[in-house]
Amino acid sequence: MLPWFQDRFPLYLAPMAGITDTTFRQLCKGYGADVMVSEFVSAEGIFRKNERTMEYLDFEESERPLGVQLFGGDPDHLAEAAKIVLDWKRPYFIDINFGFPVNKVVSKNGGSSILRDCPLLARIAGAIVKAVAPHPVTAKIRIGWSAETINATTTARILEDCGIQAVAVHGRTKEQGYSGEADWNVIAQVAEAVRIPVIGNGDIATAHDVERRKNSTRIAGIMIGRTAMQHPWVFREIRHYLDTGTHLAPPPLAEIWAHIRRHCAMEIARNGSELHAMQSMRTQLMAYSRGMEGARHLREKFAHVASLAQLDDIAAENIAQSSAGPQLAAV
C-alpha cells in the first residue's frame, strides 16, 4: 500500500491544466495537502522534449510525495514516456489520466475517451505498470462516458487487476464535463468493489463535505480541484477537522489578500519578470475573486493588473470597502 494511506486520510491536490504548477502546489502543501500530482503531461510531448512539457515536470523537493500524470492513447508510448519521466525527475509515482473530458485530448484518444475501450485501458495500465516496476502507478477515472454508460466499477477492477495501486474517481461522466452534480453513489460503489484505495473527487467545497463523504463511503482519501483553485486554505480546514473533529472558521479578508500577494510574489520570483508573471496570474486571480465582496469590480481590475504595486492598491481598496476593515496583512 502507498505509505500515505497507512496512517492518515490523505488529501490530494487534483491536477488542473494551467493552474497546479509548482508554485501553486507548494502553497497547497503548506496548507496541508498531502499528495501532489503534476499537471497532466502528454506522452508525445515527452518524446519530443517539448519545452512546455518540460516545464510541467518541474517540481521542488518540498512537494513530495508527488506523482507525474501522463495521458495518451498508445500503450507502448505511454510506457516509454513513464520510464523517461522516472529517469529525468524521479517522482514517487506515475499517475495515468483516464478522466480528462476536454475534446482536444479526447479527440486524440486520450483522457476519458479510453473509458469507452476497456481492453485499451487495460493495455495502457498494464504496460505502464510493467515498464516502471517496482515504482507505484495510480490512475484517475470518471464514472463513465455518459449517463447511459457508467462503468466505473468495471474500469476500477480492471485497473486493480493490472497492478494499479490506487484510483481517484471523479463523480461525473465525460459528457457532464464539470456541470451538474458529482454522483457519490457511484464513487461509493467503486470503493466497495476494489481492494485498492479509492480517492473521491467532485463537489468537495468544505470540511463539512469531507465529513459527510468520509462517513458515508469507504473512500480512503479525498482529491480537491476547483475548490482549491479558489480557496487553497480549504486543505487547512479539512486537515483541522480530520485531526480534531472540529471545524475552523474561514480566514479573514486580510489573510486572504496576504495569501494572494504571496502567490503573486512567488510566481514573480520563479518567472523572473513581474509583468509576465502578473499576466500569467490573471486567471488565478479571477478564481480568487469568486465569493469575495465586490467580485465583479475585482475581476475588472484583475484583467489589467501588471504589478504587485497595483495588486496592493486593489487589495487596499477592497479591504477598505469591506465590512472587515483591517489593513492589508503582511506576508
Number of helices: 16
Overall outline: globular
CATH topology value of the largest domain:
TIM Barrel
**Total domain count:** 2
How would you characterize the overall build of this protein?
By secondary structure, this protein is an alpha/beta fold. The protein has helices at residues 22-31, 43-48, 51-56, 75-89, 103-106, 118-132, 152-161, 184-193, 207-216, 226-230, 234-244, 253-271, 274-280, 282-289, 295-302, 308-321, and strands spanning 11-13, 35-37, 41-42, 66-71, 93-98, 137-144, 167-173, 198-201, 221-224. Strands 1-2-4-5-6-7-8-9 form an 8-stranded parallel barrel, surrounded by 7 helices. Helix 7 (152-161) runs parallel beside helix 8 and helix 12 (253-271) runs antiparallel to helix 16. The longest helix has 19 residues, at 253-271.
Topology:
Layout (H helix, E strand, L loop, with lengths): L10 E3 L8 H10 L3 E3 L3 E2 H6 L2 H6 L9 E6 L3 H15 L3 E6 L4 H4 L11 H15 L4 E8 L7 H10 L5 E7 L10 H10 L4 E4 L5 H10 L4 E4 L1 H5 L3 H11 L8 H19 L2 H7 L1 H8 L5 H8 L5 H14 L10
Parallel strand pairs: 1-2, 1-9, 2-4, 3-4, 4-5, 5-6, 6-7, 7-8, 8-9
Summarize this, please?
By secondary structure, this protein is α/β, with parallel strands linked by helices. The protein has 16 helices and 9 strands.
Q: Main traits of this protein?
A:
single chain, 331 residues, alpha/beta, Non-ribosomal Peptide Synthetase Peptidyl Carrier Protein, Chain A, 16 helices, globular
